Amino acid sequence: MVVIALVTISRVAMGNIVEACISQCAWIWISKSHQRRTHTVARLEDFKLFDEASRGFLGSVALIWRMKGLHLSCIGATIIIITHGFETFSQQMVDYVARPVVFKNEAERSAPANLRSDYWDNVEQRDSSTNLTLQLSTKAAIYTGIIAHEIPVLMPSCDTGNCSWPVFPSLAVCGECKPKSVMVQCNGEGCTHSVSPSTSVIVLHGDGNEAFRVRPITEHPSLKDQGSTAYLSVFEALAAAEYKSKSNSTAFECALWACMQAYDTAMNDGHLSQNVTTMWNETRVENATSAHLEEYVFVNFPTQMNTLERSRHAISTRAVQAIRRFMDGLTDGWYEDNVGRVRFSSDWAEAIHDGMPTMSKWMEQLTLSLSNEFRRHGKMQDDHSIKYEGSATKMASFVKVKWFWMIYPPLCLIISVYYLFATILAGVRDDVAIWKGDSMPMLFSCIHPDILQLGAGKMDTHKGLDELGRHGIALAKAESGAWMFEPTVGPEDRRGRLRRVFRWRD
User: Fold this and answer.
1) pLDDT tens for residues 131-169?
2) Does residue 506 fall inside a structural domain?
3) Structural domain harbouring 340
4) What is the pLDDT, as a whole number, of residue 493?
5) Where are the beta strands (DSSP E) in 85-188?
6) CA 27, 31, 36, 40 torsion-angle sign
């Protein structure tokens, strides 16, 4: 709307100036003094050309063609032509761009903090005679992590679908699987593959036979002396097969442990991106006191974790032991396929067997499922902190001004003003009154009898007016003070045509 208003104002201002100047140039062009000074001959039909040029596009083109671009009036005709492109080129003056702006919801938080936890103790005791057991949500997370192919990341709340959050820390679960070397011994019946005295499989000779074994490593030194890491599970998995009389085998030692992770989360058009920027494993066991249970407390974590001041991140020893007992039961099993007869000890053993070709990805899914559980059902020391709240943005339209195109209207206006002063000077030099487009001078000007006689014979004939228009004419001031139109040359006289003299005629 603003652009249209500016263009309209510029066009009206220029139109008034230019139209008046072109009309005045008509009087200057036919004046006798101008014709004598410039050695040109004006024709009667030139009045029509100047009038049409002051009114529209085609008339301006015709005037430029008639004057060969060498007369002062051609400036005005050119401006008239250019102003017809205002509406088209005005769209180039501004551009509407979409940029994100902060969205504020007065009723509720538009981008609340992501789920996170500082403390984990999600265990319960059913009765005094049983050990502590994991709550169902944690068991479900472990089951899902072992079996499922894809685990979704936790989806934060974002009112606009475009949000960003500061880096935030949370308790999580980390894991890793490292390849192990396999020892193979063969005899007439089959081959024995082993990675330790307690973990081995026998694959009978036969194309396509398979065997798999997974076993928790209870004798692992790190399980006896935790040191600086809170291990939740350590197990080894061995898979062997025979194809085309050749045996092959793979083995991994895998571990799960409690850790801290710092997350960088953002949402763009409803699509969430979440990256783990920092992981931290170092813990210290603190004995139980009246204030807390025996716990693995994370220590010496770096500033990149962006933790709260005086924050404390810990997991109870009893929770670590409960998860380890539960995982030991699931990671103890076997799978075999002999001549197409498939048998396995449990669904968990089959799922781990199926994950052996891409063990790293399988471990990522398991740790993601458990990390989601820690973030969902863990506890926080300070529930009211707003440090980790995000900001929501929405796309808003902004007007971008293209200053190069903004030169267009003022430049045309400046040329129009220049054209105005040039026309005034030309009128003063040739002693032409300021009549512009007024029709009254025509009524009070005298017409030479020879012109009237020509009109009497041509007015009613076919193309008679066209022939009359080719007669030369000049406007001069008589001694009596009256203005008179005088004939100069006939239509057959070549002087009635504008000579191609390459100098400016004003």
Assistant:
1) 789 999 999 999 999 999 899 999 999 888 889 999 999
2) no
3) 103-396
4) 62
5) 94-103, 119-120, 123-124, 133-134, 163-164, 168-179, 183-186
6) positive
